[in-house]
Design a protein that fits this description.
single chain
């Protein structure tokens, strides 16, 4: 599952690289967005043949919400914290590079591309690391690295 999620980072990297390249070439944002929407529409139309069909005779949803078990609630809180940090970096990293550090829009896009590439690399390596370190140890080590990195970024200013 970790490697599967790595493709999310690959997509972020590809999008940032294409957008950064377009900015570097001087292509305005509106033309870039229209061109990418057209290309993505073509890709979805082509890939549609491999989509899974809906199950025949599917009934309405069963139980929509159930109170989670205590262990699941703890994992949910942990996932929330991890995704909050990831989302902040993904959503605001390029803005920080551009508006606070004064880089060009192309460099800000490269910053997001680098983030996406490292995120993909970590996720592609995740299954191997779980096999070598075990789930608990990997969770502890990766959480310590993430907390240390975020703490250092806050202290550096």
């Amino acid at each position: 599952m970790s490697a599967f999620h790595g493709f999310f980072g690959v997509g972020g990297f590809a999008g940032a690289a294409l957008a950064g390249g377009a900015m570097w070439l001087g292509i305005d944002g509106a033309r870039h967005v229209v061109a990418m929407a057209f290309l993505c529409g073509l890709a979805v139309t082509y890939a549609q043949r491999w989509f899974l069909p809906l199950p025949a005779g599917r009934q309405g949803p069963g139980v929509v919400f159930a109170k989670p078990a205590r262990a699941l609630l703890g994992l949910g809180i942990l996932a929330f914290c991890a995704l909050l940090a990831e989302g902040a970096m993904a959503d605001w990293g390029a803005v920080y590079l551009r508006d606070v550090l004064g880089t060009s829009a192309a460099v800000a896009a490269i910053g997001f591309a680098a983030f996406s590439l490292t995120m993909a690399g970590g996720r592609f390596a995740g299954d191997l690391l779980v096999a070598r370190l075990g789930r608990t140890r990997l969770l502890r080590v990766s959480s310590a690295i993430a907390a240390g990195g975020l703490g250092a970024a806050l202290l550096i200013g």
